[in-house]
Amino acid sequence: MKYFKLFHTPHGTLIQSSESNLTKFSQSTTWDELINQEDLYTSCSLLFTKANETDINQHEILPPVHQQEIWAAGVTYLRSKVARMEESKESGGDTFYDKVYSAERPEIFYKGNALRAIGNGGKVRIRKDAVWNVPEPELTLFINKFNKIAAYTIGNDMSSRDIEGENPLYLPQAKVYNGSAGIGPGLLVPEQALSPHTIIDMKIYRDKNLVFQGDTQISQMKRTHTELAEYLTRELHFPKGVFLMTGTCIVPDPPFTLMANDRIEIQIEPIGTLIQTVASND
Question: Which of 21, 106, 115, 158 is deepest in the core (most CB within 10 A)?
């Protein structure tokens, strides 16, 4: 599969091609203008031809979010439905997740913006008032201002499972807080859509020891990417585009919970690997 990779920096855009070992740098357009080109793949091809060669290690790479919002879809995998039902059974909220999994309308919620976004190498957070916190590795769509899926990245939907489990109406508090939206490292712009056999893999290390590993294929999703994008943009206009995390089925079983300094590695090839650590709440 042919593709380009775009990386957002403070002073311009880094671009790589699957057909070259070079990294190039361009300041010819802003990040928001570039990623919202109607035919982003063709625009990347032209940009790569004109851009100057550079060393990627000489640049600070920012999250791929600038003026975009970040949204997320939930209960898109069977494993996610089962886990959500288990955690909310005592509150009586388990039926909500059972129904939304089979309903025509998906669960979609606001996750954050650039202020909440944490990029590759950054520190995500767990809530001080939560006792069961997990990362949720998710293929993330970039939907441009024309409502078309133009690129992909990796999302880490940090979640406080005990808060959501206590009452489904607490979901915004469980999902949206400072440092809760991991995203990056860059954008993958493929010539064609990702294969359904694409693998999402997550590893969590504590004191350099592997304490959790899980993987899945995106073919296990109940809903299509196009379906999720259509529902999100049906009554919402995004003039700078929008990121949409597409859900997960990689769920660490209780009593596992994240701790400060845990290292989270989420790999989705050919996008790359999003590596983050858990910040201390001191």
Answer: 158
Write down the pLDDT at residue 93.
Answer: 52
Phi, psi values for residue 80, rounded to 5° = -65, -40
**Residue at 265 is within a domain:** yes
Distance, in Å, from the CA atom of 65 to the CA atom of 67, rounded to the nearest integer, reads: 6
Containing H/E element for 73?
strand 69-74
Task: Give the integer Cα–Cα distance in Å for 237 and 260.
Answer: 38
pLDDT-above-90 percentage for the chain: 83
Same domain, 184 and 227: yes
The domain in which residue 110 lies consists of 69-278
> Tokens at residue 43, please?
């625009």
Compute the distance between CA of residue 161 and CA of residue 87 in angstroms, rounded to an integer. Answer: 7
Coil, strand or helix at 100? helix
Predicted confidence (pLDDT) per residue in 245-280, tens digit: 999 989 888 899 999 999 999 999 999 999 999 999
